[in-house]
Amino acid sequence: MGYLYFARHGQTVWNVENKICGATDIELTELGHQQAEELGQAILEQGIQIDEILYSPLIRAKETARHVSEVTGIPMREEMRLKEQNFGKYEGTPRNGEEFQKAKANFINSYEGGESMLKLCHRIYDLLDDIKKESDQKTYLLVAHNGISRAIQSYFGDMTNDEFARFGIKNCEIRKFEYKE
């Protein structure tokens, strides 16, 4: 079977301020733009073969994908299912807030106007199932968000609820995931 790559977007102001971005459309910082360009360079230097970049419609992921595409020449396409989870009333609040940490442990919670973890995983799993069908012929780089990385990690391996809730990757970190038979 084939594989795919995942990278989180570059740094945003709310990342620096330790605020929950969620579905709020937050731009990259200067460092975030630089991280995205460096990600493209790393892909070239490591000889990573990618056929297409799929990116979240949120500006921080779109700009990251654009920089990678410009550096590598890899074509890019928006994928709506990669949009970050909507954390409802918690968007813009501290990431380590006690109330949010409790709410985050309940996977059915929609955060008063947001999207539950279960619904997020459902849409990401559907996307990953679609990609799997062509993964022997085409390799994708998915550029999205920390919450999406959590769902992808859980698709490819078992996690406890606590591991799922605490999982995260750094800005512009790239990971490879392999499909099994």
Describe the protein.
With 181 residues, the protein is of the alpha/beta class. The chain is 41% helix and 13% strand. It contains seven helices and five strands; from the N terminus they run E-H-H-E-H-E-H-H-E-H-H-E. It has helices spanning 13-16, 30-45, 59-72, 98-104, 117-133, 146-156, 161-166; strands at residues 3-8, 52-55, 76-78, 140-144, 174-178. A five-stranded mixed β-sheet has the order 3-2-4-1-5, with helices on both faces. Helix 2 (30-45) runs parallel beside helix 3 and helix 5 (117-133) packs across helix 6. It is globular.
SSE topology:
Elements lengths: L2 E6 L4 H4 L13 H16 L6 E4 L3 H14 L3 E3 L19 H7 L12 H17 L6 E5 L1 H11 L4 H6 L7 E5 L3
Parallel strand pairs: 1-4, 2-3, 2-4
Antiparallel strand pairs: 1-5
Descriptive labels:
181 residues, alpha/beta, five-stranded mixed beta sheet, 13% strand
Give a quick precis of the structure.
With 181 residues, this protein is of the alpha/beta class. The chain has 7 helices and 5 strands, in the order βααβαβααβααβ.
State the helix count. 7
Report low-confidence residues grouped into runs of 5 or more: none
Order of helices and strands: EHHEHEHHEHHE
- Summarize model confidence as the mean pLDDT: 96
- Taking all Cα atoms into account, the compactness measure Rg is 16 Å
Total beta strand runs: 5
What class do helices, strands and sheet pairing give?
A: alpha/beta
Largest sheet: 5 strands, mixed
Strand content: 5-15%
Distance, first to last CA? 6 Å
Inertia-based shape? globular
Read across the widest sheet, the strand sequence of neighbours is 3-2-4-1-5
